[in-house]
Amino acid sequence: MKIRVVWVGRTKNAALASVCTEMCERLRRLANVEITELREPKVSDDRTRVEVEAHRILGAVDRDDFVVALDAGGRAFSSEGLARFIGRHMAESPKNLVFVVGGPAGLSGDVMGRADLDWSLSELTFSHDLARAVLMEQLYRAMSIVRNHPYAR
Question: Least buried of 38, 41, 81, 87, by fewest C-beta within 10 Å?
Fold first, then answer.
């Protein structure tokens, strides 16, 4: 099983991009991880942007993947709950876990319809770049818990 993260565009804030890179490098010591960074569409209106992003996101997701869409209205997990979810998935399913982060305008209904689970990082609102850093840190923390690695203690 592989953990994949699919997101639209580059992480523009250099400090947060560094956090994402660091967490990804740490996570790779505990799991097979891949980041797929999709090209950001060059359109001005949000509706067209979301549609173009949806096409790219759905093209990056395999039919057999278990897709987790990050969405403000999704299910909340504690760090331990996320670790239990990932650990259970690893034990019970050969499907890759794919975490999808849309662009600043959000995810389309088509992407949300494809998702097997909607996950909310928090009731707080984060900048797009900060949400990526939080996602990567929480994936690393969850895998640390699953693997009984000292980071999570």
Answer: 81
What are the domain boundaries of the chain? 3-152
Contact 101, 135 (CB under 8 A): yes
pLDDT in tens, 81-112: 999 999 999 999 999 999 999 988 999 999 99
pTM: 0.95
The CATH number of domain 3-152, selected from 3.40.1280.10, 2.40.30.10, 3.30.70.100, 3.40.50.10140 = 3.40.1280.10
What does 6-48 look like in DSSP terms, one character per residue? EEES---SHHHHHHHHHHHHHHHTTS-EEEEEEPPP--SSHHH
